[in-house]
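Worked example 3. Consider a protein that binds pyridoxal-5'-phosphate.
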Amino acid sequence: MDNIRIVETIRQVDPTIANLCAAEDSRQADGIRLIPSENYVSPAVRAALASNFTNKYGEGYPGKRYYQGQRNTDALENEVRRRACEIFGYPHANVQALSGAPANLAVYAAFMKPFSGRIMAMRLDHGGHLTHGSPVSVTGQWFEISHYGCDEHDVLDMDQIRRQAREFKPDILVCGYTAYPRSIDFQAFGSIAQEVGAISLADISHIAGLVAGGAHPSPWPHMDVVTFTTHKTLRGPRAAIILSKDPQHADKIDKALFPGLQGGPHFNTIAAVGVALAEASTEGFKSWAHQVVANARALAAALAERGFHVSSGGTDNHLLLVDTRKSRGLPGKRVAIALEQVGIFLNFNTIPNASPLQKPLFPDGIRLGPPAVTTRGMNESQMPRIAELMDRALENVKRGRIEKGTGIWADPSARKALRAEVQAFASEFPTFAGFPENP
Ligand SMILES: *Cc1c(COP(=O)(O)O)cnc(C)c1O
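Given these inputs, the predicted complex is written out as structure tokens:
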């Protein structure tokens, strides 16, 4: 169903929610969305989310459910598992995780007891995820954590990580990040884990679509367990998948997720994951994934040309980090708020090796990437235009003062003009351009 039909169907029952849906459709169409964990799903994925599978309960796994009436749900879940295994090359897949955080928690619960397990993972302010042992997450409260970080060039130092792992002896060694712009050396992580007797876990939530499309090296066969969200570069609904190599690991993970952690699976979401996986196995998706990386490189180059400090000097994947304090004297939050006011959406983010002023909620930079705009059909030739719009906005904001009521723009009329330019530019691109081969 298209956006308008969805909104009108809702409106017959609930005008309030319908209006919010319509407003969100406009926001997503009128702006330039650069949050690298977001995307636009296909109409087929949205339709599967709205399917009647939402009406069905089915605690358990195919062939072993606690409810009757599973003929179609069993077939569905088996088919989606099979597709996940085929695309990522792993022999076992669990497709029931409701999202990325519970998927990671299930893996920890499968292999460790609370208050005795040890996790080694990337620190949050260098690009790790909250569920990789942050003190505000139960993963950091229930397990002993040793965090590694980037070196002075903002990249991982595998020799240092190996030394740290030998010393700490983790039960689980985690790689895979939420804000790291470089390729991950899964072979090195796998060999370190093997050497110290740890389970190796690759959390490829951000890059799953790039891996599926062949635009990032695969964790297979190096990593024991792989988790990923299906809603970022994989272009599916909000959910997660857990892959594993060893049948005994798979069994532990299945039990940890259900009945350990979750109740009934969300079959409508699983159906939509299946549709996304079908899309991800097409040639068109592969072209899209490679175009995302090409666009990220072009955007990094265009920003660097304008004097922006790009962390680690560029990107190998779908995202980049920019130290806006170093580049323009502007902390990331001010940049993110100002750009939202002209319809450019990205997020403030910590930068490795930032100034001493940086704090998690007051970081020195921003994180951005082109997955969503690539889905709209943009290519390298549009990236300099995005960099230009950002630069012009920040030039104005840099001269502005933060005062109550007056905002942060030196010249508020320039803000209005830029907003109109962003809207005109965005409106040249549909929110879903199809896949490159079959638009
Ligand atoms: C997004 C993300 C998660 C969490 O996913 P949610 O669906 O938000 O729970 C976990 N790990 C990494 C690396 C992520 O990028």
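Take a moment to read the result before moving on. The chain has 17 helices and 15 strands. The longest helix spans residues 283-305.
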